[in-house]
Amino acid sequence: TNERTLVRWNSRSGTKTEELLPTSTVARIEKAHIELKGEARHLVIQRTFSEQTLALPPGDWTFFDQPSTALLLRDGSRWLWIDVGTATPNAVLLEASALRFAPADAQTNGLLLLRGNELAYWVPGQDTQLLIRQSNPIREATWHRSGDVVFFSTDTTIEAIDIDERGGRRRQTLATFDHVSDFDLLGTSLYVAGTKNGQEGVWMLTIE
Known about the structure:
The chain has no helices and 21 strands. By secondary structure, it is mainly β.
């Protein structure tokens, strides 16, 4: 959604369409839109034969994603997960600077919540679990393909931690750097951009 226009891009056909939105509509996705009533935003869910309207908490809410039977809305560092698969939608408010979804074929449907010096884990319908709280910030995080292990970075380390807390969560430092700028996981390799021994570059760590 771009101001008063909804732009759709079809990557398969290579076509783009543009649709003018009503002046009260601030965002739209399939089967739902957010509209402005006065200064308040409302979520309108399109049911089979009707529409269902929900008042949103104060804020500039817009759509972020549409996972499974839910809608994920965002307002800065606030996230609103709304389960629309039931007659009475259930909404959960989350606080995080960023979210990381588990891989589609993982053994969990959880989300990682990055929030400063904390890393938390949340599964829809359950309580949030705190994985790590430390004095220095956690900069980035990603999932192992199994969904059992999480990789994360600080300013100087790449580390791994178990999701399963039975027997205690194991935490392991995989590599240390002078500075870690960013990292990402591709297949079985972690690629780390940063500085090590005074040399800038990209390093690769092989992960089982």
